[in-house]
Amino acid sequence: MRPRTFGHSANVDVAPGRSPRQAIPFLLPALVVLSALVLYPLVFSLIRSFFDAGGDEFVGLRNYVDTFTDPRTLIAFRNNVIWVVVAPAAVTGLGLIFAVLTERIRWATAFRLVLFMPMAISLFASGIIFRLVYAEEPEQGVVNAAIVGVHDIFSPSSQYAGARPRDGFTPTDAGFTANAQARPGDTVMLPLIGFNPQEMPAQALPASAPQAGVSELRGVVWLDVSVGGKAGQVDPIERGMPGVAVEAVRDGQVVARTTTGDDGRFTFPDLSGEATIRLPESNFALPFRGLTWLGPSLITPVIISSWIWIMTGFAITFIAAGLSAIPRDALEAARVDGATEWQVFKRVTIPLLSPVLLVVFVTLVINVLKIFELVFVIAPGSVQEEANVLALQMWQVSFGSGGDQGAGSALAVILFLLVAPAMLFNIRRFRRERS
């Protein structure tokens, strides 16, 4: 049935639409920019990957073969796999947990804003922050400062860390053992060095050599600074070292143990026969300084934890938006039917939220495959090889010490091929939801 028309437009069935040609002037600037920034580099990199480092000789697939046989690139592939398996799932899971837990609290918006704030900081600046957070020195690294503080509460450090006998002792796993044996009636002189005199305990008194006992083994432990005096002898300005544990060892067994007084003297009153004097390692053990977070074994987990801190706010924002769009009638109906909150979350919330979770996860996978700044900034130069990822390897090969833009272009093409499926998946999903 033809539509009813009036007047001179009787021969026209429908009003004509606008011509697509009218959109070309508006799309042309965007197309030019897109071609210059995306299409041209992509095509140029693909062509360049078939040439040598100088770009003069065609080498075919040699760059790709070298890429899959280079140990550094294989490490980068391995680390990228770890990133893809761990990081997106962790961020999506944390985002879901925080979004659900904060849905009903009063300050939910403020809480989510705080968690989203790291997204406002560039990855380069975030890398500098976490380089300091995970610094090995407790005076700089926040993490090690906290760990050392907790450790020292339960296991205080030794009082004379780093000190050692001047001579006449052999270092062992158990401490410093005297080379000569001692017996009751002897006087043992134990001068120590390697300790700052200004850090001596306040109760330390001037040291003096004890008188030899008839049936007792006596000795003195003092800090031998040997300034204006003679090394190995007690000088008037030198002080004893209180609280030093001293052991008498016979046949590998500790037969007696004592502790020095404020003047550094000690006595074994009940010692019978010869014994070897030993200063246990606990007297001089260096203080606990935390973990080497930026070392080869922990560098990748450290960088992943930094990325999780940055991206959790992104996941919370999207998942919270998805939660707000879930029909409340479905949740209430499940509760009325007797479902627990966990069952509601598992059987209703998760299925209805799965499209959003999938989009967040895929977007994070794309982000992870392109990770560069955090690895470049956080990982020290000595361990960058262990923390290497494909994007960093591409930059190092192309513009770093390698200077081989042919191999770098091959890495760029490989990285694009890894990212493209995730991008196409997101694009198709967006189009399916819009249609």
List keywords for this structure.
435 residues, alpha+beta, MetI-like fold, Immunoglobulin-like, 2 domains, 5-stranded antiparallel sheet, 4-stranded mixed sheet, 12 helices, 9 strands, elongated
Helix-strand blueprint:
Elements: H1 24-48, H2 62-67, H3 71-101, H4 108-116, H5 123-133, H6 142-154, E1 164-165, E2 169-172, E3 175-182, E4 187-193, E5 217-223, E6 245-250, E7 253-259, E8 265-268, E9 275-280, H7 299-324, H8 328-336, H9 341-369, H10 373-378, H11 390-399, H12 405-434
Parallel strand pairs: 4-5
Antiparallel strand pairs: 1-4, 2-3, 3-9, 5-8, 6-7, 6-9
Helix pairs in contact: 1-12, 3-7, 3-9, 4-7, 7-9, 8-9, 9-12, 11-12
Q: Overview of this structure, please?
A:
This protein is α+β, with helices and mostly antiparallel strands and 435 residues long. The protein folds into 2 domains: 42-144 and 293-434, MetI-like fold; 164-283, Immunoglobulin-like. Helix content is 47%, strand content 12%. It is built from 12 helices and 9 strands. The strands form 2 sheets. Strands 2-3-9-6-7 form a 5-stranded antiparallel β-sheet, with no helix packed on it. Strands 1-4-5-8 form a 4-stranded mixed β-sheet, with no helix packed on it. Strand 2 (169-172) and strand 3 form a beta hairpin. Helix 3 (71-101) runs parallel beside helix 7 and helix 4 (108-116) runs antiparallel to helix 7 (299-324). The longest helix has 31 residues, at 71-101. The chain is elongated. The two termini are 29 Å apart. Mean pLDDT is 87; it is low at 1-15.
CATH classification, class level of the largest domain: Mainly Alpha
How many domains, as an integer? Answer: 2
* Strand order of the biggest β-sheet: 2-3-9-6-7
The largest sheet, given as strand count, sense and whether it forms a barrel, is: 5 strands, antiparallel
Tell me the number of helical segments per DSSP (H or I, 4 or more residues long): 12
Strand content: 5-15%
Q: Kindly, what is the distance between the CA atoms of the first and last residues, rounded to a whole number of angstroms?
A: 29 Å
Give the CA-based shape: elongated
Any idea of the CATH topology of the largest domain?
MetI-like fold
Could you estimate the helical fraction of the residues in percent?
Answer: 40-55%
CATH architecture type of the largest domain? Orthogonal Bundle
Look at the structure and give the mean pLDDT.
87
Low-confidence stretches: 1-15
- CATH homologous superfamily label of the largest domain: MetI-like
**Helix-strand string:** HHHHHHEEEEEEEEEHHHHHH
The structure class reads: alpha+beta
Backbone CA Rg: 36 Å
